[in-house]
Sequence to fold (956 residues):
Amino acid sequence: MAPLLQVSDLRTHFTSFGGSRVVRAVDGVSFTLREGETLGLVGESGSGKTTTCLSIVGLLPPGARIVGGRVDLAGEDLRAKTAREMRRIRGGQIAMILQDPMASLNPLFSVYWQVAEPAYYHRRLRGATLRRRVQALLGAVRIPSPMQRMREYPHQMSGGMRQRIVGAIALAGGPKLIIADEPTTNLDVTIQAQYLDLLKDIQQETGAALLFVTHNLGIVAKMCDRLAVMYAGKIVEQGAVRDLFGAPKHPYTKALLGSMPKLGSKEPLYAIPGQPPDLAALPTGCAFHPRCAEAMARCAAEEPAERVLGADRTARCWLLDQARREQHVAGAA
Amino acid sequence: MSPALLEVQGLRKHFPVKAGGLFTSRVAWVKAVDGIDFAIRRGETLGVIGESGCGKTTTAKLILLQERPTAGSIRFDGADVAGLAGDALMRYRREVQVVFQDPYSSLSPRMRVGDIIAEPLEIHDKQLSREARQARVAAVLELVGLEPGVARLFPHEFSGGQRQRIAIARALATDTRLIVLDEPVSALDVSIRAQIMNQLEALQHRLGVSYLFIGHDLATVAHISHRIAVMYLGQIVELADSLELCEHPLHPYTQALFTAALPSHPDDKHERMTLTGEVPSALDPPSGCRFHPRCPRAMPICGHEAPVRREVAPGHAVACHLYE
Amino acid sequence: MATTSADIDPAVSTLVAVHRAPRLRGWPILPTLILVPFVILALGANLIAPYDPIEPIPGAKIFEPPAWMPGGSLHALLGTDFQARDVLSRLIFGARVSLIVGIAGTLVAGGIGTALGILAGYLGGWVDQVIMRITDAWLALPALVFAIFLATMVGPSMWNIVIILGAVYWTRYARVIRGEVLSLREREFVKLAEIAGASRTRVIVRHILPNVANSAMVLASLTIGVVIIAEASLSFLGVGVPAPQPAWGSMLSDGRSMLMVGDWWLTVFPGLGILLVVLATQLLGDWLRVKLDPQLRNL
Fold:
């Protein structure tokens, strides 16, 4: 089955100070997403995960430009689209859920108008049909007494409920792809759990693909089928969630897994030394090598290329070459 | 058993709010903290978990004397903190410090790091000479894993994790005995959190300082705390050893929290205990047990009578009618 | 796809590029080009001005036009006024008056306003109420009229004018600084200092003051222009710097009637002086505002 979203060698650069400073925020990112699948895009601040999403929907801030690569949605090249065509795709085929619901919602408009808007523009619904759709959407995100809530305003609702409204707005246009960028960061533990369950249910009901951006591996463990780990603008490892959690191949993935506190265990945490990299001043060779417990001499000199390790499984690390060579040697002996 | 460093009993904080219409004005009370008891021993970490509106931030403010309690007592080293003034108050401020959540706004942007760390010394240990102060600053910087030379730099030259270290160093500058940590790692990158957590634990072993660790991520709080208090709507519903709480959560709210916690492995699936409704307002908390409207195991008595916290196993106390 | 910088009109993009070029942006060229000469003139007036500004040029006629016009001569480059005094010399000495009054007046206004703003913002309560009501009352008075009133009461002299203008214009500082202090007060580093036991004085001096300094400086550079114009207005109305001391405002007033008969040099040059200096300070203030705000700086 052809993938719904195919990102190939995407490169996005930020230029500032009149062109004298170039930051390679996204530096050769490739991944695919099939219908109904959930892909987790994991990384810390500065890894490029949010910029990747903005590049996909064409909403880069001033100073940022896609300088290479392809983004294909259902086979169509999104980079070749005009601004007008992209406007129709955004909200229609692709929806976004962002981190701060208060920032996503307009305080001046009622819930009804905000949820209705995508359905109005993308589905061309009007009048009673529109009202029924809004009611159905609010029901889909499990908001109690939707008829009453429709008339309310964002400030009258709690954080969890606002995030559901954002979810309803995202669904209103009937998207095939939902991009969620850390939607639960500001939510309480139990509210977060409810929201994630809701997202999963919606995904199963509508068959939409979900690109879930987060820094929290726990969310990935709960929600995602596949996972792509980003560091300094590149994907360092990707594959099925079970494979990466069970047998991670990249030292960064291993380190992230080791640094997560596990409930009920007092095992010491593995603290990754050093700081996340400054994208304007990346180290030579592999960007992770200064913090890598298994770094070799080669890692400081050359950037590792992306190696395919199996179906949908890739990783960028010189250790893999080493492992393969050892296998050859062992096999030849 | 070593005597408690900090002992809180029956602590309450009610905030007045004006309610009523245009012509009538009624004073209503937000019962942010409504009767909590706990103790922290020397060298121990007490974790506090709870969701928004549970009162954990207000509790921190009460301990830091940013707010005066409406009722109840806070005893530090046996002495009641409420009546403190003058020298005694300054002594308290010297020994109880805080580290806040946001590393980007907790350091004075126009002061050098060395001056920021030295400030508690300037306030409390006025007799120290400049050299002695600088030596102390260098010593605490090394304690938190930073070069002493960074004292002359400004905060904006540091990353979030490093700033938190500076904040911790500042909290340790005087002979601090208790540090209140309010979500100290929530705003940090995942890879840095473990660094800071390990650092905090190492400092505790080395200096014997106690922590009141407030957080919303269960795994993080459970990892660093010896004991954990679970708060709901201004009250402590359960208090137990960290591991014991993780293995045997007794109060239905605690159970809901734990089942809602994120798994650490994709195969780690457990039955979710779903709660109905939302957290009620602290203006008008439910009668009897405050949790009863949302509790999946509520009994008729729960609506009338508030449960008293009882120790049901050694070191494990819970306030729930199910266990009486 | 989204518009890229290449889609903008080339001429515009050049301007944008120049505006954004780091080296040029590092220093405000235009304000410096204007202000430095004026400051030099003001400081070295005694040495630079060709004649005594109060005395008539010996042997000159009244209302002589500037040198390049018919009837003008090189001994009075910008012409002479109704008492045969050299316009150029008066202009130079007038620069001194304008700049001194502008800067000193701003400092007085800034000093009073910042102090009151900090006290009102940080101490709150009745201190805040009292200061704010005074500010409101003060603001209700029209600035210039109030200044005129004060000037006629205390009598005109340059330093009196400085104090008067300082007393009139402090309110804008108080309001703005108070606002900043209100938000600063809630910032965590201030709370930290309070929890550590810092006295209020200490918090104000070490934490609040340095962080409002930026706003105060930006406000100051923007206020200089206003004060200079106010001084010029007062002089124009005859209650500013007293005659025969040269001030741009009084030069404007004196020369006004001759505009009808075409003796333009009496008003245009002092007018240009005011225009350029105020423009320069405003641009400087704007540059300062961007430079001191870390968020705007990186665009």
